[in-house]
Specification:
Elements: E1 7-13, H1 21-34, E2 39-45, H2 57-60, E3 64-65, E4 71-72, H3 75-83, E5 92-94, H4 95-108, H5 118-136, E6 142-147, H6 157-168, E7 175-182, E8 185-186, E9 191-192, H7 195-206, E10 213-218, H8 224-234, E11 241-245, H9 253-260, H10 262-270, H11 280-290, E12 294-302, H12 312-325, E13 327-335, H13 336-342, H14 344-347, E14 353-356, H15 365-377, E15 382-385, H16 387-399, E16 406-408, E17 417-422, E18 437-445, H17 450-455, E19 459-466, E20 468-470, H18 475-479, E21 483-488, E22 495-500, E23 506-509, H19 524-559
Parallel strand pairs: 1-6, 1-7, 2-5, 2-6, 7-10, 10-11, 12-13, 12-14, 14-15, 15-23, 16-17
Antiparallel strand pairs: 3-4, 8-9, 17-20, 18-19, 18-21, 21-22, 22-23
The structure holds glutamine.
């Protein structure tokens, strides 16, 4: 049998950043997967960091951690969620990794005699990293390669040169360039403008890349004359000019692309045969997202609330959990520093649940602790993630166990009560890149816990990204309280989940459940957290109704 040839789709971006290349690539990925093809995805990040693990969330947004412990770009979260497929470190390539490998080889003497250059040494390394996933899984039909940044950026040039070479080295039906661009509507002129797209395609052609399909971000669908014009100036058939209109939920994008004929055009070019994708499960999700029975308010109290990209997977996990509970979750973003200034009672008075996300550094921690006290005492559902769980332990230690100066060793080395401390194997770690407890770890659940009820099993595996842990020196002290360690590592040494038993739903987890939530399969903890918030919300409404009734009766009695 002749060896199967994996086909490559390269997705580039033009005009401006933040057009949603990750979502566009993932949407195409799921359409091809639903057509029956084996699809994989790669994100090429042109920055010089080896991975985004050392970057500030304000710069880069969320760091998406995989099972294998790699810290990757948040687009890998979209890939996993849209394709319902787990990624590995091979799905994210950065300039930092490429140069690191090439320079290590040079020092070893592998290139002895040669001048090491961008072309061919850097580009060869990029090509081999792009080919690696299909080499490891030879039954892969299609790999979608997303090139980060915008055409014209200095950093992305070696990547563009590498994919140009890959197209040159293969048959035309085995590679395809798709360019994602912006067609803005200019209100004063009352029309859409095609010039930015023309310029950006021109920039691609100057480096030897001719896109075959243009995906145009636009407020309204592009009409035929505009598609013809873009097609003519950019040397693309008009039917390959796809309108990517703004949609209510990102999960609609694949369906819109399908209506626009994107997957058909891709399959035609790559000679991938006929057939239609069955997207019925996605249609159901969208119907539920758009028309929910309940509406809830859940507060997220964190440090990076002005930059929603820092909490991307949490936002998506709430959408998935909403679908399973027939509810829309309106997220109330509360800066933990504001809690300290204005008080939890004022800022959190009408919420149905509180989530404290992960984070690093002491800024805002006291506000988080105060807001946890508020929901614990008022029996409002709570989910604490990583630093959120650590804050819940500190709050409980201070306000219930009476350890007034309980805190985390992350913030103060000299502490009377370091209820959160450093693991022994983290002591003395000086290199900060890739050295936390990272990736999938197993845990065992107490069968009488809410977590067990959520997961429906005793053995779980979840993704971690932290250095500090629950301090076992306090296990005995907590044993006689209502805060229980209900999830522990298989050897019992690490506390992975705590719950407060005299509360309707109070769960703190040392891992990041949001990273494993999928639109067709909400994460069990998010699902049950939202379910608890629905119950809380309904109870609150009923209490309001009966107090209205009582005050009606009272005022009638006063009148008579
Ligand atoms: N800063 C904490 C730690 O390193 C929590 C990390 C997190 O929330 N991801 O342990």
């Amino acid at each position: 049998m002749p060896e199967k040839k994996t086909k490559y789709i390269f997705v580039t971006g033009g005009v401006v950043s933040a057009l949603g290349k990750g979502i566009a690539s993932s949407s195409l990925g799921i359409l091809l997967k639903k057509r029956g093809f084996k699809v994989n995805m790669i994100k090429c990040d042109p920055y010089i960091n080896v991975d985004p693990g050392t970057m500030n969330p304000f710069q880069h947004g969320e760091v998406f951690v995989l099972d294998d412990g790699s810290e990757t770009d948040l687009d890998l979260g979209h890939y996993e969620r849209f394709l319902d497929q787990s990624m590995t470190k091979n799905n994210n390539v950065t300039t930092g990794q490429v140069y690191h490998t090439v320079i290590t080889r040079e020092r070893r003497g592998d290139y002895l005699g040669a001048t090491v250059q961008v072309i061919p040494h850097i580009t060869e390394e990029i090509k081999s990293l792009i080919r690696r996933p299909a080499k490891d899984n030879p039954d892969t039909d299609v790999v979608i390669v997303e090139i980060g940044g915008t055409v014209g950026d200095i950093e992305s040039q070696p990547f563009l040169e590498a994919i140009r070479q890959m197209a040159l080295e293969s048959d035309p039906e085995n590679t395809l360039f798709i360019h994602l661009t912006l067609v803005p509507y200019i209100a004063t002129a009352g029309e859409v403008k095609t010039k930015p797209t023309q310029h950006s395609v021109k920039a691609l052609r100057e480096i030897g890349i001719q896109p075959r399909i243009l995906v145009c971000r636009t407020a309204k669908p592009l009409d035929e004359p505009i598609r013809n014009k873009i097609g003519l100036f950019c040397s693309v058939p008009a039917k390959h000019v796809i309108s990517a209109v703004d949609v209510e939920t990102i999960y609609e994008v694949p369906l819109k692309f399908h209506e626009e004929g994107l997957d058909r055009a891709v399959c035609d070019h790559l000679q991938l045969g006929n057939g239609e994708p069955d997207m019925s499960d996605w249609e159901e999700i969208i119907a539920k997202v758009k028309d929910p029975a309940h509406r809830l308010k859940i507060a997220i109290c964190g440090k990076y609330v002005h930059l929603k990209d820092a909490y991307k997977s949490i936002i998506e996990a709430f959408i998935h959990a909403g679908v399973e509970n027939n509810a829309r979750v309106d997220l109330i973003w509360v800066s933990s520093e504001d809690i300290k200034k204005s008080g939890a009672t004022k800022l959190l008075s009408d919420i149905d649940g509180l989530l404290i996300p992960g984070g690093f550094g002491e800024r805002g921690v006291e506000g988080k602790i105060e807001s946890i006290r508020f929901v614990r005492e008022n029996k409002i559902p709570f989910l604490g993630i990583c630093l959120g769980m650590q804050c819940a332990v500190i709050e409980y230690a201070r306000n219930v166990c009476g350890l007034k100066d309980a805190h985390s060793y992350e913030f103060y080395a000299e502490l009377k009560h370091p209820v959160i401390h450093l693991m022994a194997d983290q002591e003395g770690v000086t290199n900060l890149g890739g050295t936390m407890r990272l990736g999938a770890y197993p845990a065992k659940l107490d069968p009488y816990s809410k977590s067990y009820r959520a997961y429906g099993c005793e053995d779980i595996s979840e993704r971690h990204r932290h250095r500090y842990e629950f301090n076992n020196a306090y296990r005995d002290l907590f044993a006689d309280t209502t805060m229980k360690p209900v999830g522990v590592s298989p050897d019992g040494r690490l506390v992975e989940i705590v719950e407060v038993t005299d509360h309707p739903w109070f769960v703190g987890v040392q891992f990041h459940p949001e990273l494993k939530s999928r639109p067709t399969r909400a994460h069990p903890l998010f699902r049950d957290f939202v379910a608890a918030a629905v119950i809380y919300h309904t109870g609150k409404k009923e209490a309001d109704k009966s107090s209205d009734k009582n005050s009606d009766i009272q005022s009638r009695q006063n009148v008579s």
